[in-house]
Amino acid sequence: KAGVTQTPRYLIKTRGQQVTLSCSPISGHRSVSWYQQTPGQGLQFLFEYFSETQRNKGNFPGRFSGRQFSNSRSEMNVSTLELGDSALYLCASSSAYGTGGDGYTFGSGTRLTVV
Amino acid sequence: KQEVTQIPAALSVPEGENLVLNCSFTDSAIYNLQWFRQDPGKGLTSLLLIQSSQREQTSGRLNASLDKSSGRSTLYIAASQPGDSATYLCAVPYNNDMRFGAGTRLTVKP
To answer: Running DSSP on this structure, what letter comes out for residue B87?
Structure first.
């Protein structure tokens, strides 16, 4: 079966711009989580969606937002980009009710570079 | 609050050696524990998922154990190969997200 698909794989944006990243979970998975990974901070939780509802949010500013569609595909948006937003953004999908009962499957990530 | 710690942060071994990576967590009320592998610049690949009712899981040369009462898990890699070089992370579900350790960066020298 198809895995978790993240698009695009790479992005270069200018400071102040905004960006939208996409994540298509494994078919049948209803939970999608987003993480930011940087060399200094490791994996940082952004938010989790289940059936189009955001159920949990990490400690990120309001410039980071997301949504989930009825087909479980999810997008995250970062507005007014800053240099510090340069990171690998990962999404993970799970079939269980957010507790990761079946474990998490990650996509390959989107590498965002802000210049 | 759930905190996950991995020791050591980095490990370098010669090819063929058996090795153990450690993971500890502070809240023993976990549903499961998952081990991942990450190659540089890539996403996380799931290696093993241990449910809370299980004591261990095996996949090929990998064996993961879980001791909930002591808040520990170990990942055992047998007969290590250069292709095993990567960062290994453990994670547990918590509050509708996953809590990750900082990872162990493994280098297997030919």
So the answer is: E
CB contact under 8 A, B96 and A99: yes
Q: What is the pLDDT along chain A (115 residues), one digit of tens a residue?
A: 679 999 999 999 999 999 999 999 999 899 999 999 998 788 999 999 999 999 989 999 999 999 999 999 999 999 999 999 999 999 999 886 545 567 899 999 999 999 9
Neighbours of A100 (CB within 10 A): 27
Q: Is B14 exposed, middle or buried (0-12, 13-18, 19+ CB in 10 A)?
A: exposed
**Could you tell me which of B49, B41, B37 has the C-alpha nearest to residue B105?**
B37
Cite the DSSP H helix spans in chain B.
none
The answer to whether residue B43 neighbours chain A at the CB level (below 8 Å) is yes
- Contact residues, chain B, for A90 at CB < 8 Å: 43-44
User: How near does any CA of chain B get to the CA of A11, in Å?
Assistant: 14
Q: Which of residues 14-43 of A touch B (CB under 8 A)?
A: 31, 33, 42-43
Contacting residues of B for A56, CB less than 8 Å apart: 95-97
- Could you tell me which of B36, B25, B15, B26 has the C-alpha nearest to residue B78? B15
Backbone angles phi, psi at B37, to 5 degrees: -120, 140
On chain B, the residues whose CB falls within 8 A of the CB of A105 are 46
Q: What is the DSSP letter of A85?
A: G
Residue A58 in contact with partner chain B when CB distance is under 8 A: yes
